[in-house]
């Protein structure tokens, strides 16, 4: 496929990738897993953290924005299922591009024709869309081509680079109920401003009395770097907030022991009790738009 000058094939952190460039900055997306590796707004540092210990392909890449699809963790799946689904482990290819000017460029990607997504969801079709301009937007489009309803869980598992994970705040969570994986999925409500205590692994959902409404706007406030990352989600009924903490990082082969300090995950998601029942013939969009304030 023809690529405009704003989209350039490149190598990044050992991965075959595509670099998108506008006057507002650059973004790099790997062909392996359609994995967003980098976004550098003009004149600023990278928004994402990428592990220096990430294993080579075909293993999953640690950092950036992994595509967790069509299930999150192993929710609703047998124990033999691939953690976070197969999409992040297969080769993707460009299916469409658009460059309107030096201000904005976008592309669409889909798994390669020979990519084996998984026998557990053979009738689902997925594509990813990425737009780089003043902001960066990603969206996942899922279609059910089968005859049975599929219970879809998913996430854009964003690893945001921070000055120190224990010293950042997350705005937009106050009043939201959550399930705490570190406490056996115990239910609670965020009553106080969010701050990291040792480690965190939570699935937040809509506020009580809000019905199905879910604002989907969060801000990662990083005073150390004088940066505020605004995350606006759509088609996302939940948000996952995760950091493994010191002890958790020491148990992870693809994260340096002190690497937990360098990132915080805030993930547009449909997970926990917030599952998408995708009927035959139905489709669903989930995405996020990121901006720097």
List the helices and strands and how they pair.
Elements: E1 7-12, E2 15-22, E3 25-30, E4 36-41, E5 67-68, E6 92-101, E7 104-111, E8 124-132, E9 136-144, E10 150-152, E11 154-156, E12 159-161, E13 169-171, E14 177-180, E15 186-189, E16 200-204, E17 217-222, E18 227-234, E19 238-243, H1 245-250, E20 263-270, E21 276-278, E22 283-292
Antiparallel strand pairs: 1-2, 2-3, 3-4, 5-11, 6-7, 7-8, 8-9, 9-22, 10-21, 11-20, 12-20, 13-17, 14-15, 14-16, 16-19, 17-18, 18-22, 19-20
Could you walk me through the main structural features you see in this protein, from its secondary elements to its overall organization?
- With 293 residues, this protein is mainly beta.
- It has one helix and 22 strands.
- Strands 5, 11, 12, 14, 15, 16, 19 and 20 form an eight-stranded antiparallel sheet that branches.
- Strand 8 and strand 9 (136-144) form a beta hairpin.
């Amino acid at each position: 496929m023809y690529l405009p000058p704003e989209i350039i094939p490149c190598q990044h952190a050992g991965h075959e990738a595509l670099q998108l460039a506008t006057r507002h900055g650059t973004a790099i997306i790997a062909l392996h897993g359609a994995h967003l590796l980098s976004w550098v707004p003009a004149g600023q540092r990278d928004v994402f953290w990428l592990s220096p210990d990430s294993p080579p392909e075909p293993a999953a890449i640690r950092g950036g924005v992994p595509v967790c699809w069509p299930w999150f963790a192993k929710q609703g799946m047998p124990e033999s299922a691939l953690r976070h689904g197969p999409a992040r482990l297969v080769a993707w290819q460009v299916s469409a591009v658009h460059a309107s000017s030096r201000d904005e460029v976008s592309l669409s990607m889909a798994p390669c024709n020979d990519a084996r997504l998984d026998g557990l969801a053979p009738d689902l079709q997925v594509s990813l869309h990425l737009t780089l301009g003043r902001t960066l937007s990603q969206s996942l489009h899922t279609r059910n081509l089968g005859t049975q309803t599929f219970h879809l869980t998913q996430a854009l598992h964003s690893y945001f680079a921070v000055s120190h994970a224990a010293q950042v705040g997350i705005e937009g969570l106050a009043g939201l109920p959550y399930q705490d994986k570190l406490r056996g999925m115990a239910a609670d409500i965020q009553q106080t401003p969010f701050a990291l205590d040792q480690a965190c692994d939570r699935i937040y959902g809509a506020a009580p009395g809000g019905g199905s409404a879910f604002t989907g706007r969060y801000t990662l406030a990083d005073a150390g770097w004088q940066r505020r990352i605004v995350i606006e989600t759509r088609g996302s009924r939940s948000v996952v907030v995760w950091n493994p903490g010191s002890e958790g990082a020491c148990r992870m082969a693809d994260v340096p022991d002190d690497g937990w300090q360098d990132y915080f995950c805030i993930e547009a998601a449909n997970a926990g009790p917030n599952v998408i029942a995708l009927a035959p013939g139905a489709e669903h969009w989930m995405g996020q738009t990121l901006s720097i304030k």
